[in-house]
Request: fold
Amino acid sequence: MTKNKIRVRFAPSPTGPLHMGGVRTALYNYLFAKKHNGDFILRIEDTDQNRFVPGAEEYIMESLRWCGILWNEGVGKEGPHAPYRQSERKHLYKKYAEKLIEEGHAYYAFDTSEELEAMRKQIEAEKGLAQYDARTRMEMNNSLTFTTEETRQYLESGHPYVVRFKMPGNEEVVLQDIVRGTVKVHSSQLDDKVLFKSDGMPTYHLANVVDDHLMEISHVIRGEEWLPSLPLHVLLYRKLGWENTMPEFAHLPLLLKPEGSGKLSKRDGDRLGFPVFPLLWNDPKTGEVASGYRESGYFADAFVNMLAFLGWNPGTDQEIFSMEELAEAFSLEKVGKSGSKFDPAKARWYNHQYLMRKSSKEIAELFDVLLREKGVHLSGEKTEKVVSLVKDRVNFVHEIWEQADFFFQAPQSYDEKTVKKKWKADTPEILQKVITVLENLDDFSVEPIDKALHDFMEKEEVGAGKLMIALRLSLVGAGKGPDLKEIMEFLGKEEVVARIEKAIETLKD
Ligand code: GLU
Reply:
């Protein structure tokens, strides 16, 4: 049933850093909510105490904030359905487990891990599907095989138990997934999943369904890895009497490795040299450090734009979208069914596009931090000038230094190939004459420099190829780079002359 208000949630478990696939899930939820003036909720699913990783929750929130994927309800924000951390909602779930038991849709199971293991071995020996289900449950220790009195005694004795869903033997589950289309599963293929444990904690399945119901979620948008759980979730809605207000579902395709197939994993990033996490992550247990997009120099808006296109496209040629434009254009119907191959080169391309679109002033402020680390102190205007001259050659702010170091220091060496090809016997003599011409300039800025060099070439009958490359070698140390007159103006007469003299001296033999 369609709900009046669009309400979606991102529901990560704080078991480690948020994978970029998780960020994309959050992004699609956010865009969908924004497009429909709905609510976007952040819920932390921390019922599995064994998998809890300190710092992961903060990491998730910081990542979302960095990306501008802001929730209007949820952990850290509060709202009408607080608390939003499942461990703090513990008291809520038990009654639903009990209701299912009372109505015959769930039962207590007391099997020890040894007994479960023995069952698994036996069934595997018979080449059957080793699971707790309609076929095996009547041979195990549970409230279906025990008398009421026995069950009561077990419970009172404090014997560990779990509550299992009593998967119906013969029920067809047919559902519509917005991305996948019709999904049909027969209940006989499914097992009796654990819903609740004697430590008082629900499992993911129960907590997820109960919370989506209580929080009035209209659409569940999540990764494809949860599709196999969907039939159980639908049956839970059905048995809890909530089927007519059940959310709609959209399961997003996987992010795939750049080459071959298979899910993009943390190891692919390390192997191929790109981050798979939004922010740098220091693993508190192993001490391992995993790189992040932020620390690698990506702009948040470029990262978000790139991510949006991994699984969705607007159906036009436009590739650059602000968050507002993404929200405007986004629709779940345009999310593809098949996995999206992650392309690290495209990620860098996006960063370049954003770098080019940002003002030189903004980039200069970022670059200035790096300059200061290197002990270079320039006026804002000069830094901006350098940035404007080299920004089309870089993908990241930190690459500007490599492209622009000659603005701040004389070349330490001269590109050998260019020297061999272009530094001729008469080059020093020509350059010596140019020095005189340059020294005579009162106004050492682009236009007068340009004019003086042209007049010189005409008068001395020297080709531009010869003179300009020799000059470039002297000033930059290489045969390529931004506009030479701009470089000369930036360096100033004295420095230009000093560098030419140094080149003549160094390259004389
Ligand atoms: N806690 C689950 C996760 O970690 C949430 C899945 C869902 O959105 O239902 O991804």
Observations:
- The mean pLDDT is 95.
